[in-house]
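To fix ideas, we reproduce below one chain and its tokenised fold.
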Amino acid sequence: MSESRRKVVLITGASSGIGLACAELLGVRGHAVHGTSRHPAKDGAHHRMRVLDVTDDASVRRAVEGVLADEGRLDVVVNCAGFVLSGAVEDVSVEEAWRQMDTNFFGVLRMCKAVLPAMRAQRSGLIVNISSMGGAAGLPFQGLYSASKFALEGLTESLRQEVAAFGVEATLVQPGDVRTRVREYRVRASQSGPGSAYREDFEKVLERMEAGEGAGVPPEVVARKVQALVERPRVDVRYSVGHLSQRVALVSKRLLPARTFEHIVMSLYGLSRR
């Protein structure tokens, strides 16, 4: 890759899943990739790993300053860090909800605030925020996860308009089910166990969700979409990635009456109104 097309890329949550797939592919493509994690392992064959905790202001600042010191610029940030909190809204404590938002939403906000001064100064830059199809449609027993991604969608839409005059762009990638280690890292609401009024439905829905995740597309599919965005001159507001049936479902939400779409979603997860 020519030096003029080579981008300096910073990726959060690059120790596994989508973040790791993005780091590996963009590194192979010849970009200068800096992956990050709270507890990074050794550097990859084509990318470097750094310590970064998106819930810690100082950690975010140090990581961004380190990349700028080493590379002299920062062209792309891919915000992948996040986790899934599952449980009925009633069963989620405020503290658990805060931790979900602090990582999935405020973590991205911290990253944007840290990188934008450099991007504005160089009059170019791209922020890729990894959202979710759960950021376009609320899913049962994923209320706080969906809330964090809905918030991310609104933030990115606003951010795009604010930074356009500085030559900076922002976009959203909405994966459907992806075969990652999300099931290992999923956090269950503390009150979702025995004694919860929602326990039976919660376990049924979660079983179906995890089966879908196991049959999802490999993370490399999402990485290829991110790579295409990094290497194109202009990006749109959002891009969905995943099985065709899930991508069609996003379109159907815009076309169908809201109650009809809600009924379809509930039926998919074995839920019904009493």
